[in-house]
Amino acid sequence: MNNKGILYLIPTTLGESAYSQVIPSFNNTILQEIDVFVVENIKTARRFIKKTAPEKVIDDLVFYEINKRTNLDMLPTFLKPIDEGKNIGVISDAGCPGVADPGADVVALAHQNNIKVVPLVGPSSILLSLMASGFNGQSFCFNGYLPKEQKDRVRKLKDLERMAIAQKQTQLFIETPYRNHHVMEDLLANCNPNTKLCVAVDITMASEQIVTKTIVEWKSTKIDLNKRPCVFLLG
């Protein structure tokens, strides 16, 4: 008989949006039953749980943090409660855990150890931006973050543009919010005037903007991208 617990992937909001508008109520039912969490940032996770499940006693919960500073050799320790029959929740800083998120390492280890993994429904900036872009949703590729150095970034952007055109495959990518304007400048300076670019900003929030235009049209369009979470799409 398998008495192992379950690894639940618990989405969070993408920003200051109402929880009830973007997260199903079923998620809260699952959250109520979990006392052990693997999270990208403990402070952010505690705030999320306190907001969505205020009746839970935060100080009674157990948190394991997984991010770029985490020693991956510690991951088996994080999953030990599952062997004791306890469920564990994985929470990202924003959106869906395991997608452009270090939680993927925990999920991979769970599969290696025959642990049941259950993804809960929630907002994904990648899929929501693709849905609203008007681009090819049959064939697309998420490329994560672009290189920091401008010459490398420009080279990557040109490669993505070529793939978008030659393969008719939507190319999605993101950048650290304070570098968004650098990416936009490089796109406008280096892409073909007729290439289509979708910019999706503050998805699910009151300030949300999702706009698709050609590069030449974008050159005469003003949009504030400073320190706002953004997904770029070439199609």
Question: Could you tell me the strand content as a percent range?
Answer: 15-25%
Unreliable residue stretches: none
Oligomer: single chain
CATH class of the largest domain: Alpha Beta
State the CATH architecture of the largest domain. Answer: 3-Layer(aba) Sandwich
Helical amount: 25-40%
CATH fold field value of the largest domain? Cobalt-precorrin-4 Transmethylase, domain 1
Secondary structure elements and pairings:
Elements: E1 6-10, H1 19-22, H2 25-32, E2 36-39, H3 42-52, E3 62-65, H4 75-78, H5 80-83, E4 88-91, H6 103-112, E5 116-119, H7 125-133, E6 140-145, H8 150-166, E7 170-174, H9 180-190, E8 196-201, E9 209-214, H10 215-218, E10 230-234
Parallel strand pairs: 1-4, 1-5, 2-3, 2-4, 6-7
Antiparallel strand pairs: 7-10, 8-9, 8-10
Q: Which terms would index this structure?
A:
single chain; 235 residues; alpha/beta; Cobalt-precorrin-4 Transmethylase, domain 1; Methyltransferase, Cobalt-precorrin-4 Transmethylase, Domain 2; 2 domains; 5-stranded parallel β-sheet; 10 helices; 10 strands; 35% helix
Any overview of this molecule?
The model has no long low-confidence stretch (mean pLDDT 94). With 235 residues, this protein is an alpha/beta fold. The chain has helices at 19-22, 25-32, 42-52, 75-78, 80-83, 103-112, 125-133, 150-166, 180-190, 215-218, and strands spanning 6-10, 36-39, 62-65, 88-91, 116-119, 140-145, 170-174, 196-201, 209-214, 230-234. The chain folds into two domains: 6-119, Tetrapyrrole methylase, N-terminal domain (Cobalt-precorrin-4 Transmethylase, domain 1); 125-234, Tetrapyrrole methylase, C-terminal domain (Methyltransferase, Cobalt-precorrin-4 Transmethylase, Domain 2, 2-Layer Sandwich). The strands form two sheets. A five-stranded parallel β-sheet has the order 3-2-4-1-5, sandwiched between helices. It is elongated and about 60 Å long.
